[in-house]
C-alpha cells in the first residue's frame, strides 16, 4: 500500500503532457464552482411575468434577467464536456500497460492521480450545489418556453445565437439529471472502457478501487487523519472516495456492492457515517440514488440497511 502522506504532486516528464492538458481544465473549475454557488436565479422576475402576461415591461424584464443566466448554464454544460475529455486523458494514462499493476501506476503517477481526485471532488461539489438550487431548471424552462413563443410570433430573439435548439435539448437533459456532472463522468468512464476493448477492464476498476481504499484508509486511520490540516482535506477525501465508488459501480460488470467487489463498501459507508451527519448527507444520497447496483438482489442486506 503506498503511503499517501508522501505524495508528490509535481508531474514527472512522463506525466507532463497529460498533466498540462488537465491542468488547464482544473484551473477553470474553481471559477465554475464560485459562479454556481453565487447563482441566484430569476425566480422573482419570472413569477411577475407569468402572473401579468399582458404587461410587456415585465415580460422584457424577465427575459433580460434570464438570458445572461442561460449564458452561465451553457458555460457550465460546456465545462462538463471539457471535464469528460480530461477524465479520458487521465484514465488513458492511469490504466495503460506501462506498469505491472495499479499500485505502481498510482505510485509513479501521483500528480495524475491527484488530478483525477480533484476532478471527482469538483464533480461532487458541483452536483451538491446544483441539487440545492431549483432556480437552475426553472430559469432554463422559462427561457425555452419564451423562446418558442417568440419563434411562433416571429419576434427576433436576442440571445437566440447563444443556444440553438439542439444545444438547448442537450443542456436541458444535462440539468434534468439530479447529479449532472457525475452522470457525465459515469458515462465518460463507461465509454472509455467500451472504446478500449484491448485494455483489461481490471486496469480501470483496479485504479478506481485502489483510490477508494486509499481514501478510506486515510480517513479511518487516526495516524493519517491527524495529519489532515483542515476539514477541507477531509471533505476532499470523502468526495473522492464516493466518486470513485460510483464510477466503479458503473464500470464493473457486477458493481461495487457485490461480494466480489474490491471495494470494502461496509468500511467506506462506516467512514461516511462517522462524520458529522450534515456534512455527508449529500454523499450518502449520491450512493443511495446515483449508483447502478445498490438495489441488486445480490447486494448484502447489511449494506442496504446501512444506507437506509
Automatic annotation (TrEMBL):
InterPro entries per the UniProt record, alphabetical: CYRI, CYRIA/CYRIB_Rac1-bd
Locations listed in the record: Membrane
GO MF annotation list: small GTPase binding
Pfam name, any one: CYRIA-B_Rac1-bd
Membrane topology designation: Lipid-anchor
Residue intervals of the CYRIA/CYRIB Rac1 binding domain: 11-304
Superkingdom of origin organism: Eukaryota
Key words, A-Z: Lipoprotein, Membrane
Keyword Membrane attributed: yes
Ranges in a coiled coil: none
Gene Ontology biological process: regulation of actin filament polymerization
Cellular component aspect of the GO annotation: membrane
Similarity comment text for this entry: Belongs to the CYRI family.
Name this polypeptide is given: Family with sequence similarity 49 member Bb
Species in which this protein is naturally found: Dicentrarchus labrax
Gene: fam49bb
Amino acid at each position: 500500500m503506498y503511503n499517501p502522506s508522501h505524495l508528490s504532486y509535481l508531474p514527472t516528464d512522463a506525466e507532463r503532457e497529460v498533466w498540462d492538458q488537465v491542468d488547464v481544465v482544473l484551473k477553470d473549475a474553481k471559477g465554475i464552482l464560485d459562479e454556481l454557488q453565487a447563482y441566484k436565479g430569476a425566480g422573482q422576475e419570472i413569477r411577475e411575468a407569468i402572473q401579468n402576461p399582458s404587461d410587456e415591461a415585465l415580460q422584457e424584464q424577465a427575459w433580460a434577467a434570464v438570458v445572461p443566466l442561460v449564458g452561465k448554464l451553457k458555460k457550465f454544460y460546456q465545462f462538463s464536456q471539457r471535464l469528460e475529455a480530461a477524465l479520458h486523458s487521465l484514465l488513458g494514462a492511469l490504466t495503460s500497460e506501462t506498469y505491472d499493476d495499479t499500485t505502481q501506476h498510482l505510485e509513479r503517477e501521483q500528480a495524475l492521480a491527484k488530478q483525477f481526485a480533484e476532478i471527482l471532488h469538483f464533480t461532487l461539489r458541483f452536483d451538491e450545489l446544483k441539487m440545492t438550487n431549483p432556480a437552475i431548471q426553472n430559469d432554463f424552462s422559462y427561457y425555452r418556453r419564451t423562446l418558442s413563443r417568440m419563434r411562433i410570433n416571429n419576434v427576433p430573439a436576442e440571445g437566440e445565437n447563444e443556444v440553438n435548439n439542439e444545444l438547448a435539448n442537450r443542456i436541458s437533459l444535462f440539468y434534468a439529471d439530479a447529479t449532472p456532472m457525475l452522470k457525465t463522468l459515469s458515462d465518460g468512464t463507461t465509454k472509455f472502457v467500451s472504446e478500449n476493448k484491448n485494455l483489461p477492464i481490471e486496469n480501470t476498476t483496479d485504479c478506481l478501487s485502489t483510490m477508494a481504499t486509499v481514501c478510506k484508509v486515510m480517513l479511518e486511520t487516526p495516524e493519517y487523519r491527524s495529519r489532515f490540516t483542515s476539514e477541507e482535506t477531509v471533505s476532499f477525501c470523502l468526495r473522492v472516495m464516493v466518486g470513485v465508488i460510483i464510477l466503479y459501480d458503473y464500470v464493473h460488470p457486477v458493481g461495487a456492492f457485490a461480494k466480489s467487489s474490491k471495494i470494502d463498501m461496509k468500511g467506506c459507508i462506516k467512514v461516511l457515517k462517522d462524520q458529522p451527519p450534515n456534512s455527508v448527507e449529500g454523499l450518502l444520497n449520491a450512493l443511495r440514488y446515483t449508483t447502478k447496483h445498490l438495489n441488486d438482489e445480490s447486494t448484502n442486506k447489511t449494506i442496504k440497511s446501512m444506507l437506509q
